[in-house]
Design a protein that fits this description.
By secondary structure, the protein is of the alpha+beta class. It is built from 3 helices and 8 strands; from the N terminus they run αββααββββββ. The protein has a domain at 52-168.
């Protein structure tokens, strides 16, 4: 069964992966907690805050999210890529807004990121997208401090209520 994320990835990436597929190694897809890469977070000088998600119909996405660097591929994203035999790092670099942070749930592998199509995705630990919202595209680059707090819609059969997003300053 293909999820909406898998279908979108397939449509966007099919031309670039004709003729050969590769898999990723464990360094490209770190395990979620306990995680040898848990200290690979943004520099202490970063002013990025955390994001708290509540009230979402999908229980696994509720909680506190901490910013992570673009260079680390979300575990759930890598799971979807592995299932489709796509290279996770290359796929991440095509679909996520370059050099922008993403946010990882503090207790599971749910994550939130800016997609190049102008939407912010909230994905459950499996990597399946459950909610999306448009982000403000100032010069086509979202502000990493402006994770959308409104405009969220469910993907597929994701249950209501929609997530409540709170930006938490450090």
């Amino acid at each position: 069964r293909l999820t909406l994320l898998m279908i979108r990835l397939l449509i966007l990436l099919a031309p670039s992966f004709q003729g050969g597929y590769s898999t990723i190694n464990p360094v490209q897809a770190p395990l979620c907690t306990p995680n040898p890469f848990v200290d690979m977070v943004l520099p202490a000088s970063s002013t990025l805050g955390s994001v708290r998600i509540s009230n979402a119909g999908v229980a696994s996405v509720r909680g506190l999210y901490r910013p992570r660097p673009f260079t680390v591929v979300p575990t759930g994203f890598a799971k979807v890529c592995n299932a489709m035999n796509w290279p996770a790092t290359e796929t991440w670099h095509k679909l996520a807004v370059a050099d922008m942070p993403w946010w990882e749930h503090e207790h599971n592998c749910s994550y939130l990121y800016f997609h190049v199509d102008g939407t912010c995705w909230l994905d459950e630990p499996s990597g399946n997208g459950v909610y999306i919202a448009p982000y403000d595209t100032l010069d086509s680059v979202p502000s990493c401090t402006l994770v959308p707090t409104q405009g969220w819609t469910p993907l597929g059969q994701a249950p209501l209520p929609l997530p409540t997003i709170e930006l938490v300053q450090q």
